[in-house]
Design brief:
The complex is a heterodimer. Chain A is mostly helical. Chain A contains three helices and one strand. Chain B is globular and about 60 Å long. The chains are: A mainly alpha, B mainly alpha. The interface between A and B is large, with 90 and 100 residues.
Chain lengths: ~120, ~300
Amino acid sequence: MISTTTLFGLSSVILVGLGLFGLIVNPQPLRKILAFNLLGSGVFLLFGVIARRGAGAGLNSDPVPQALVITGLVVAFAATALAVALLLRLFQETGQAITLDTEDPSIHAPARSNDP
Amino acid sequence: MTLALAVDIGLTLLVLAVACWTLAVRDTFTSVIGFVAYGLLLALIWVRLAAPDVALTEAAMGSGLTGLLLLGAAARLQNAKNISAPPGLALRWVAGVLCALVSAGLAAMVLLLPDPAPTLAPAVVAHLPATGLGNPVTGVLLAYRAIDTLLEAVVLLPALLGVWSLAADRDWGGAPRLRYHRPDGALTLLAQVLPPFGIIVGIYLCWNGADQPGGAFQGGAVLAAMWALILTAGLAEAPPVSRRWLRWLLVAGSAVFLVIGLAGIGFADAFLAYPAGYAKPLILTIELVLTLSIAVALGLLIAGPPTRTPS
């Protein structure tokens, strides 16, 4: 019989794989950011499983990994906000099209409309 | 099979299904909605893992604030033409196989985790009475590993500086604007009705964090979400980024934390140590100011770089 921690542990590693796949395969930058967050949540969940396994001394879960995950969630949000801001700025500079592919010839030189 | 395990299996399948759907669905907007639902379901898994503090953070920050941020970006990028082609079938297969290998390697690690598991729980419990706190996670965050939390509070500021520095020269000194379109009645009503309750919940989470699940980050995230809601509905304007009080508010949390930490060198023989008997009031002071600073920083991170262009 599978235990709850093993079940959640296995689902967390599937989430990591899914997020990594989405990050590589999806060409849209915003979807890449989303997939990266999915990957991160899988890593955090693995931490949670390790915390749950470390239950003891009257606590149902080891508080140290929990605190690390809370820290990680906040940092992940800050990094996501920065990534989104960079993406929106890229869109503003290049006009209609956004791509992370700098070799793409269909992109013209960025419009310098924002300089005074 | 016990009922609890059946619930866990159902929850796991649901989370994995929503995660797949979030990645596969064509429309980006729909995908972000899927991500928000995914985050809320994940919070339920955190509850099942006996980690209510993380569940609250995941629901408020991982699902709510990140969802709000991505929704805003998706709305602004609606007219963006995506000119990069998706990778070919062969590359997808290679990526799929490699990602499956990564998962398989991690799965092997999960199955081979040592038993009994290493744990710091007894050490945390042994010293918790000295801090006067009842919530061991808050104890770790603000006493044992206070340096992590200090750096975490500080890291929000460089992130915000990064976002602000993306403003064009002529926009500098303006106010960030979150309103994307003419707000409709439902959004305005929500932004009028929800914040009073949300603010109470945010303050409760912060105040109660010493003994119950909750704390500065959860409380700050809820307060930030309420602020962002009001800004999105256009009921209030964000302050210009050049305001001095705004900048003081942003650094107040880290500054108070740092000053109390430095005072620890003199009064308790170590950086970030609390003098015996004063731990709880000092921790509560830090948490209170930190909640405010975190709420403002998170809200401004969502609001994005300043702008001067009229809507």
